[in-house]
Every structure is written in C-alpha cells, then in structure tokens.
Automatic annotation (TrEMBL):
UniProt xrefs under SUPFAM superfamilies: Glyoxalase/Bleomycin resistance protein/Dihydroxybiphenyl dioxygenase (SSF54593)
Organism, scientific name: Parasedimentitalea huanghaiensis
Entry-linked Pfam families: Glyoxalase
PANTHER family for the chain: GLYOXALASE FAMILY PROTEIN, EXPRESSED
Taxonomic superkingdom: Bacteria
Signal peptide per UniProt: none
InterPro entries named in the record: Glyas_Bleomycin-R_OHBP_Dase (IPR029068), Glyas_Fos-R_dOase_dom (IPR004360), VOC_core (IPR037523)
Name of the protein described by the UniProt record: VOC family protein
VOC domain span: 4-133
Length: 136
C-alpha cells in the first residue's frame, strides 16, 4: 500500500477570496483537468475551487461545520480542512489503521464520485484523508 500526498484542503468562509489569493499572490494555476466530481446532495453542498502548483492540488472548500452531522460521519473534513493522500490499496490501509487502533470515518463514495475516502485524526486532531480512485 503506497501513499502519495494528493491535496491540501483549506476550509474558508469565502472561496472566491481564497481562490484569488492562491492564484494571484501565490501564483498557483487553476486546476481544470482530472477534478473530482463532488456529490453535493450527500451531506456537503459547498463551493470548492481547485488550484495547483503542477504537482499538488489545493482544494479551497466552503467551510461547513455541519457536514459531519449531515452526512452521518463523526469526522468532518470541511470544518477546518485536511491533508489528503492517495493510495493504490485502501483496503490494506484500512486494515493497517484497525491494527493500530485508529478509528476512522468511511465516507465511501459519499463526497466524491469515483473516490473511496476515509478520514481520521492525527494525535493533535488534524484531519487526514486517504482515498483510492476507482479503476472503472
């Protein structure tokens, strides 16, 4: 099971302002290809802007402190943001978390079409996402 940093998600009250900052001040490009398709009717319906440095994406997401409640999950990835890794074997990673006694929220395909996602906390309460893209 290989993990690779995929994106950093920042939660914001103003997606447009954050998009302008990261594009105009930081010089990041608007990401247009290979973007996730958000499932906006399954607990989170906020706006998201995608920018990139060419390697790593940033997802600038509208803050929603109720997304966890609305989706029935105990980890809310858009209340304060998260860091995300992509894996080629999510089932093995889940088994690893269970062996380590780390609880996680299994969002499955609930937030992004074609991605299986889990979210959990590091020891300081930062949210971590690990996802796998469906092959089909």
């Amino acid at each position: 099971m290989k993990l690779k940093l995929h994106h950093i998600n920042l939660s914001t009250e103003n997606v447009g302002r954050m998009n302008d900052f990261y594009r105009n001040v930081m010089g990041l490009d608007k990401k247009t290809e290979g973007l996730p398709v958000l499932q906006k009717n399954k607990g989170y319906g906020g706006d998201v802007s995608f920018v990139t440095d060419g390697d790593i994406q940033m997802h600038l997401a509208q803050k929603d402190v109720n997304a966890g409640f609305n989706s029935g999950q105990f980890v809310n990835p858009v209340s304060h943001g998260h860091i995300a890794y992509r894996t080629d074997d999510l089932d093995s990673f889940i088994a690893h978390l269970e062996e380590q006694g780390i609880p996680y929220s299994n969002w499955g395909h609930q937030a992004v079409e074609g991605w299986r996602q889990i979210f959990f906390y590091d020891p300081d309460g930062n949210v971590i996402e690990v996802h796998q893209v469906n092959e089909d």
